Amino acid sequence: MKINVDLKDGLLPDKYGKFAPSEYIKNGKPLISFPVDFSDIPENAKSIAFTFTDPDSIPVCGFEWIHWTMANIPADMLSLPENFSHDASANFIQGKNSSASKLLDNVDPELQSGYNGPYPPDQTHDYVIHAYALDKNLDIKPGFWMNELLHAMDGHILDSATFVIPSRA
User: Fold this and answer.
1) In which band, very low, low, confident or very high, does the pLDDT at 151 lie, cut at 50, 70 and 90?
2) Using only C-alpha atoms, what is the Rg of the chain?
3) What is the DSSP secondary-structure string of 45-91?
4) DSSP assignment of 79-146, as one string?
5) CB of 86 within 8 A of CB of 68?
6) What does the alpha-carbon distance between residue 11 and residue 147 come to, in Å, rounded to a whole number?
7) d(CA 1, CA 135)
8) Quick one: pLDDT at residue 41?
9) Mind listing the pLDDT tens digit for each residue in 87-134?
């Protein structure tokens, strides 16, 4: 299994993160998800799941920030177009991101699931996509937490891949 995201000069294009035009940002959160391509999916895969996180956030906020989680993407869907998080049909489900944390005050409920783009506060961060080819669709509900996704995938992962996306501060 492989993942590809087109980078610009080795970085996530500005449109999908901190330097997005103001119409693509709501309450400080970039909202337009970047295109993602998958390849070399095992023939017997039924679905794809993925997480998009920021391990470089640990020194900043004390934990790995979750920017986007998805499950039950059809295994034959090899490309997720731009803004898939907000424009796609109900063929897949999205989980909560870290904006849903009870540790944050006054977070817009619309921003608590789906894509919240990179917004590194201190320096360029390396964001990580982990994608998983699964032997079934998962029995989880929209708005799942990432740990629920990881538990649901246990024993059903046929293949996986990682792709690192630097995004500038």
Assistant:
1) very high
2) 15
3) --EEEEEEEEGGGHHHHSS-EEEEEEEEEETT--EE-TTHHHH--TT
4) EE-TTHHHH--TTSEE-B-GGG-TTSSS--GGGSBS------SSS-EEEEEEEEEESS-----TT--H
5) no
6) 28
7) 14
8) 98
9) 876 678 999 999 888 776 666 777 888 999 999 999 999 999 999 999
The secondary structure of residue 39, as a DSSP letter, is E
CB 17 within 8 A of CB 65: no
Rounded to the nearest integer, the mean pLDDT of the chain is 93
Quote the CA–CA distance of 26 and 30 in Å, as a whole number. 7
70 CB contacts (<8 Å, ≥6 apart)? Answer: 49, 50, 85, 92, 93, 94, 95
Q: Are 34 and 20 in contact (CB under 8 A)?
A: no
pTM of the model as a whole: 0.94
